[in-house]
Amino acid sequence: MLSKKCKYAIHALIYLAERYEQGPVQIQVISEKQHIPKKFLEAILLELRHAKILESKKGKGGGYFLIKKPSEVNLMQVMRLVDGPIALLPCVSLNYYEHCDECRNEKTCGIRDSLIAVRDETLRILEQSTLAKIVKREKQLGLK
Amino acid sequence: MLSKKCKYAIHALIYLAERYEQGPVQIQVISEKQHIPKKFLEAILLELRHAKILESKKGKGGGYFLIKKPSEVNLMQVMRLVDGPIALLPCVSLNYYEHCDECRNEKTCGIRDSLIAVRDETLRILEQSTLAKIVKREKQLGLK
DNA sequence: CGTTTAATCTATTGATTTAGTAGACTTTTA
DNA sequence: TAAAAGTCTACTAAATCAATAGATTAAACG
Asked: Which end of chain B offers a freer environment for a tag, N or C, measured as fewer CB atoms within 10 Å?
């Protein structure tokens, strides 16, 4: 399951994607609108800034804003950044690979194949899920 | 990521699937062969017994054994049993559904669609991954 | 230049979950 | 009736998660 932190990150990013190229939005505002504890959100936005997804401006009129296009930010990136590996086992992770104590020899471990398949399908879907698509979808759903 | 408990459960089940219909296997033996802490394994096997996947026999010559066919036990069942929900959000979980604070209205939440797709693909693959297939695969891999 | 605004950094805390352990108890078999 | 093996209750240490507090820095504005 996604951590709360990751859910907060995604919702904050969607909020900022809806306001793409409309100037900075204060942490305070995102916090209130999306019901995210302000101090917690600060840390999350900072992380997204370090990952070059967001940029910030200090002082009056300051706040956070997207520096990547909404079509260039997807859930795969965000989840990896905030929660770490997407794979179900460290030994099938692409970005966070670790040798796995349990399966003695990786070559003959019968469960890896399945979990590699799960990983690939998951990544495929999450990579396609860009902020642009999500915002578009929300607008469509909201109109009904 | 899967918990250690879940990995232990899967490896213990594979071990028992390889010895299907060959009589009970002692906890001690599984523990040693699969490098799983004995006391921890006890609790895991008990859970699998309560779920009617395993049965046990006490006293001399006792131990644990599969009561379902290896072709009828799959990773979806085991992961759900041991680790709970497979979905990435409670509000897209089939077996552990919970209302989600973050997405104010589920109807218009733009990330649910993607996560439902991830869930469905994941379940499809895990459901196909039966103990029988895993054991077969390990034998094939081991021969090379 | 100084005040206000808003992000940044450092540190700490409480709750929950994970992983594992200890030891007494029960059942079965020989 | 003794040994073997699973069962049950309770506890604990460590890690992770979620959140908070407070001091600091940078920008804007008059």
From this structure: C
